[in-house]
Write a structure and sequence with these properties.
By secondary structure, this protein is of the alpha/beta class. The protein has 3 domains: 10-276, Rossmann fold (3-Layer(aba) Sandwich), CATH 3.40.50.12780; 297-399, Roll (Luciferase, domain 3); 404-496, 2-Layer Sandwich (GMP Synthetase, Chain A, domain 3). The protein is globular. The protein has 14 helices and 26 strands.
């Protein structure tokens, strides 16, 4: 199970931990907790019930819920059957949710009460199971099938991208890909005595990067249904957290909390950050004021090349996102596919064993995600622009795809622009990310609409967008600035913004 040359068997590991330390805490969320023995037993009962409803290896189960103990149980139960879980963001629109569930092929959808009320109409005809009333659904008499063989290429989970137009892309992560995440995490201090404070949702890959290795190595996962700085500090103290994954805006909010300096965080061994630009000055402040090491990850949910910066070991490299992780290759190429010299910006492409199977049901988009070099090797495009220094550390310059990361969530401007262009009177629209103390960055739209009203357009657009996608402002302009080849100059739009955003 620990041999790096083999695929880590996650459900088998959970069973082993339950047998070895049945009384050790496995999952905690607020006042609810399960020991390893109780966690494994509950997951097995749920798995048996799922099997009784026809769930088999390769089938998908979807979930729409806030983090809770039984959400963790659901992950374990689905994977126990060698099935695939598709965790969906409750911030999505009903149309998005319906499209993602259909794309995943899920036979069952687990929801909490709030999300049943929000999405039941959009999911009419599907079987919805109440996650917060699981005892009413579990069949105690159901028979648990034996653990099937492990297929390294089988889908472990499906993570859906943001999207408003069409079906969001389902990123299929294999058992082999997750195995690499798990075994790599062992080098970062995860083990049977780890206590990981998870302050982002269980449907986010950001969370899963810490949550899955914590359980895989027999530690304790402490979940937060909603992030709150005072609550985070209290949870870190109470449970003696050793590991924590936070996005940059959460670090900023924690450091600004009046009670931060009085909190006992001495148990922290390693802190992580990913999902959004992490300013060098903020990294430096985290290093000064929080115990333990600090590691920044940069990469895509799709995989390819991943970078890691051990900030506590490289205080002179805080402006970078680090070096490629072991076994990962990176190239920086120009628009013609030629390698650029160190220090020169270009598109970041990479390859590694930790790469997605592809986008579910979208071979066309999967093919477009790769760049093929002269030797026929596939390199996953990141869509980001960066430069490597002479030590191999990467500095991010810009995001070629203009993706906005707000509060740890990916927002694609083209999706928002499509909604705006569908509104009456809108001739052109461009969406850019504007710096926000609250969210890291937030979307602002520049719109050509000769007789339009900015407030009305913003309200109409936001009515059709997911909660994490909503526009902070709409600015009416006579025309959009363009290059000589007709490309909208979004940098000029960002620089021209003089309003204020939350």
């Amino acid at each position: 199970m620990t041999n790096p040359d083999t695929i880590f068997d996650f459900p088998a590991a959970l069973t082993a931990h339950a047998a070895a330390r049945p009384d050790h805490p496995a999952v905690i969320c607020g006042s609810n907790r399960l020991s390893w023995g109780d966690f494994a037993a509950r997951a097995d009962r749920l798995a048996a019930t799922l099997a009784g409803h026809g769930v088999e290896p390769g089938h998908s189960v979807a979930s729409i819920a806030a983090s809770c103990v039984d959400y963790a149980v659901l992950w374990a139960a689905v994977l126990r059957l060698r099935a695939t879980i598709a965790p969906l963001a409750p911030s999505s629109t009903p149309d998005q949710i319906a499209a993602m569930v259909a794309d995943s092929g899920a036979r069952l959808v687990f929801v909490d009460a709030a999300n049943r009320a929000e999405f039941a109409a959009a999911l009419d005809g599907l079987t919805l199971v109440d996650l917060d009333a699981l005892d009413d659904w579990i069949d105690a008499a159901a028979t648990l099938p034996p653990l099937g063989p492990l297929d390294p290429k089988a889908a472990f989970n499906i993570i859906y991208s943001s999207g408003t137009t069409g079906t969001p892309k389902g990123i299929v992560q294999s058992c082999a890909m997750r195995s690499l995440h798990i075994t790599g995490a062992r080098r970062l201090g995860y083990g049977p005595d780890s206590v990981t404070l998870c302050s982002t949702p269980l449907y986010s890959n950001t969370t899963l990067v810490s949550f899955i290795p914590t359980l895989a190595w027999g530690g304790t996962a402490v979940l937060m249904a909603k992030f709150d700085t005072a609550r985070w500090l209290e949870q870190a103290e109470t449970h003696r957290a050793s590991h924590a994954m936070l996005v940059p805006v959460q670090y900023r909010r924690l450091l600004a909390d009046p009670g931060f300096d009085a909190a006992d965080l001495s148990s922290l061994q390693m802190k992580f950050c990913t999902s959004a630009p992490f300013a060098g000055e903020l990294k430096a402040e985290v290093l000064r004021r929080m115990p333990g090491g600090l590691i920044e990850f940069f990469g895509m949910t799709e995989g390819g090349v991943g970078f890691m910066l051990a900030a506590h070991e490289h205080p002179d490299k805080l402006h970078t996102v680090g070096q490629p992780q072991p076994g990962h290759e990176v190239r920086i190429i120009d628009e013609h596919g030629h390698d650029v010299p160190p220090g020169t910006p270009g598109e970041i492409v990479g390859r590694s064993p930790a790469t997605m199977n592809g986008y579910r049901n979208r071979p066309d988009l999967t093919a477009k995600a790769y760049w093929i070099d002269a030797d026929g090797k596939q390199w996953l495009r990141t869509g980001d622009i960066g430069r490597l220094d002479e030590d191999g550390f990467l500095t991010l310059m810009d995001r070629a795809k203009d993706m906005i990361i707000s509060g740890g969530f990916n927002i694609y401007p083209s999706d928002l622009e499509a909604v705006l262009l569908a509104l009456p009177g809108v001739v052109e629209a461009a969406v850019v990310g504007i710096a926000s103390d609250a969210w890291g960055e937030t979307p602002v739209a520049f719109v050509v609409a000769p007789s339009g009203d900015a407030a009305a357009l913003r309200a109409a657009a936001n009515a059709g967008l997911g909660k994490t996608q909503r526009l902070a402002a709409v600015v009416l302009v006579d025309e959009l600035p363009r290059s000589h080849i007709g490309k909208v100059l979004k940098r000029e739009l960002r620089d021209s913004f003089t309003g204020s955003v939350a």
